[in-house]
Amino acid sequence: MNQPETYIRELLAKPRWTDEECRWLLHYLEHTPGAELKAYMLERFRQQGFEIPAPELSASILSRIHDRIQPPARQTPVIPMFRRWRGIAAAAIVVGLAAAAAVFLLRPGRQQPAADHMAALPPQDVAPGGNKARLVLGNGRSVLLDQAADGPIAAGNGEQVHKQDAELIYGPGGSGNNMLITPNGGQYRVQLADGTRVWLNAASSLQYPAAFNSSERTVTLTGEAYFEVAQDAARPFFVKVNGMTVQVLGTSFNINAYSEEQLFTTTLLQGAVRVVAGHQRMTLAPGEQTTLEQRSGLLQRSSGDVENAVAWKNGIFTFKNDELAAVMRDISRWYDVEVAYSEGLNDKIHVSGAMRRQESLQQALKILELTADLHFEVQGRKVTVSKK
């Protein structure tokens, strides 16, 4: 199952959608063959005896979604993306097609829309990132994983490493330290020898032992990663980041620690973690996050936005009143492009919205241009941002 399908399944399991989720669904469905989706949905309704909601129920659903689509009042200036999709008509399209998309896209044998879309990419456009990474084994051997075939990877220190469907899977044994490195425009997954799974975002690295043979499990991260840590009370799990350590017993959490960002953010989904920075220690409950300010070293705790923190893992860009400069750093890492700003442009402008990470660069920038206040010029792998 690919990332958009996984995200749609997660959305349909929720009792209520956020405005970003509504807009993402609308944008995603805009790029899928709606007539075929509707036909397939109706056929499934007939086959399984599903009842079409009564008109008054549909109106209630539309009203609630419409309320969610309307952005709340803010004190800071915000550029709302997807402006042309506001209103009850947009909500109606989402409600009418969401179930169809989920049923149809999850049907076995369905060719992925993203693959079809990328096949017709114009030569001057830039493709989105993908499953690309380099594995450095304990003996120093380097393997480009996007060029390696599925199956065992030969190693020199007794590592038992298997590549399958853009994921590394480690078996027991081995004595070397390994490193997984994603470039700009790359992402990858790894299952460590203890069963812990890690999703590594673009421009990131994870250093770890081939097998955890000591009384603790320690890995070192740069960049961003999402962790699902296998429970082992006898051997606590530690993630070391520059200036910070996250201690885990068994949990799911996300760490965003890019060196070019002002804050290192740890967001807890399930379980419990303890974040240590110098003499500061904070234990998080699910739904909380810490931020470590790089310059001052100050560690702070707050309620976290779990969905926003892990959206990248689900194939989504989400921006919630984020500074334009931060948004463009995300774009730069994922599309492997350089970003420049025209003279006089305030990169402190705030942006809200969402889009698929599978969009090509030109499509992603067109979505950003829906703000009506920005223009993007692409020359090779350089993007210049200016006012319209």
Strand content: 25-35%
Query: What structural class do the secondary elements suggest?
Result: alpha+beta
Mean pLDDT comes to: 77
Q: Describe the biggest sheet?
A: 19 strands, mixed
List the helices and strands and how they pair.
Blueprint: H1 3-12, H2 19-30, H3 34-48, H4 55-69, E1 78-80, H5 88-105, H6 113-119, E2 130-131, E3 134-136, E4 142-144, E5 151-153, E6 161-163, E7 167-170, E8 177-182, E9 186-191, E10 197-200, E11 204-209, E12 217-228, E13 237-241, E14 244-248, E15 252-257, E16 263-270, E17 273-277, E18 280-284, E19 288-293, E20 299-303, H7 306-310, E21 316-323, H8 324-335, E22 338-341, E23 350-356, H9 361-369, E24 374-379, E25 382-387
Parallel strand pairs: 1-23, 2-9, 7-9, 12-13, 22-25
Antiparallel strand pairs: 3-4, 3-8, 5-6, 6-7, 8-11, 9-10, 10-12, 11-12, 12-15, 13-14, 14-17, 15-16, 16-19, 17-18, 19-20, 21-23, 24-25
